[in-house]
Design a protein that fits this description.
2 domains; 7 helices; Glutaredoxin; Glutathione S-transferase Yfyf (Class Pi), Chain A, domain 2; 51% helix; globular
Length: 199
């Protein structure tokens, strides 16, 4: 299998982290989005949406969208709950990540880390803060009840949300007021097979 991605991207790091936690082996192909490498004809032929990460299987089949790739790679593992309700809760957190978390925390980080905080994006950066803090408050409320998002053990929900939460400070978010979130970050970093995001 090959993973096409950028190791500084949270969505790509999710895949890298999962592969390491599961002890799987995948070839990594670096893709630079700022140089337009996801818009080349050869890339678009495989992934018409022109986004990373992209997983290419040995038989040529391709998967895109980070959380879909997570589900494929973790199929049959303990990271995916078996009961219908718990599985739906997993999806609930992953939809939350995509619609209520990433659009604020990840975009603010992108403006700061990838773009270097250009003047014409400062207002947008500031506008992302309230939504990002709301997402962190939702996570804090759950993590005050259970050590992981679905209960007592790690799941794909945690991997999906860890990717951008643990670098939220790079988007201007102060985690000091979120002790349960900070404890959760430490619990994930202590997992066997954990690998850090590339600097």
């Amino acid at each position: 299998m090959r993973i096409y991605g950028d190791k500084k991207s949270g969505n790509c790091y999710k895949i890298q982290l999962l592969v390491s936690l599961l002890g799987k082996v995948c070839d990594w192909v670096d893709v630079d989005i700022l140089r337009g490498e996801t818009r080349t004809p050869s890339f678009l032929e495989k992934a018409p949406n022109g986004k990373i990460p992209m997983l290419e299987l040995d038989d040529g089949r391709v998967l895109t969208e980070s959380n879909a790739i997570l589900h494929y790679l973790a199929s049959g593992s303990l990271l995916i709950p078996h009961s219908a309700f718990d599985f739906a809760k997993l999806l609930q957190w992953q939809f939350f990540e995509q619609y209520s978390h990433e659009p604020y925390i990840a975009v603010a980080r992108y403006i700061n880390v990838y773009l270097g905080m250009p003047d014409d994006r400062r207002e947008e950066f500031a506008a992302k803060q309230a939504g990002g803090y709301r997402a962190l408050e939702v996570m804090e409320a759950q993590l005050n009840k259970t050590p992981f998002l679905l209960g007592d053990s790690l799941s794909l929900a945690d991997i999906s949300l860890f990717a951008y939460t643990h670098v939220a400070h790079e988007g201007g978010f102060d985690l000091s007021a979120f002790p349960a979130v900070r404890n959760w970050i430490s619990l994930i970093q202590d997992q066997k097979g954990f690998v850090a995001m590339s600097a």
